[in-house]
Amino acid sequence: MTTNVGTVDRVLRTALGLGLLYLAFLPPMSAFEGGLMKYGAAVVGVVMLVVAVKRVCPIYSIFGFKACRV
Questions:
Q1: Pair 49, 17: CB distance under 8 Å
Q2: Most buried among 2, 30, 46, 51, using CB within 10 Å?
Q3: 9 and 60 in contact (C-beta within 8 Å)?
Q4: pLDDT digits over 38-60, tens only?
Q5: Nearest-5° angle of CA 37, CA 39, CA 42?
Q6: CB within 8 A of 69, min separation 6: which ones?
Q7: Residues contacting residue 16 through CB under 8 Å, at least 6 positions apart
Q8: Is 17 helix (H, G, I), strand (E, B) or coil?
Q9: CA–CA distance from 49 to each of 18, 42, 52 (Å)?
Q10: DSSP assignment, residue 47?
Q11: How far apart are the C-alpha atoms of 12 and 28, rounded to whole Å?
Q12: Which pTM does this prediction carry?
């Protein structure tokens, strides 16, 4: 697959992924105490981190969008 995630997009996805993982596992928050919200946030956080590392977003590929110069 071709690279379609740019630098700014990678930084934002990394911050969002780390933030969601933080909210899911570290502090006890009332919205994230339930299983669905907690593990849903964890899954989305991991997906965001994987996309940031791999630099390939499947949704961007489906719509033919590129956020990078290459």
A1: yes
A2: 51
A3: no
A4: 889 999 999 999 999 999 999 99
A5: 105
A6: 6
A7: 45, 48
A8: helix
A9: 8, 11, 5
A10: H
A11: 24
A12: 0.85
pLDDT tens track for 4-41: 999 999 999 999 999 999 888 887 766 777 788 888 99
Tokens of 70: 């290459």
Residues 66, 1 contacting (CB under 8 angstroms): no
Phi/psi at 46 (nearest 5 deg)?
Answer: -65, -40
Buried b (16+ CB within 10 A) or exposed e, 55-70: bebeebeeeeebbeee
> 11-47: buried (b, 16+ CB within 10 Å) or exposed (e) per residue?
eebeeebeebbebbeeeeeeebeeeeebeebbeebee
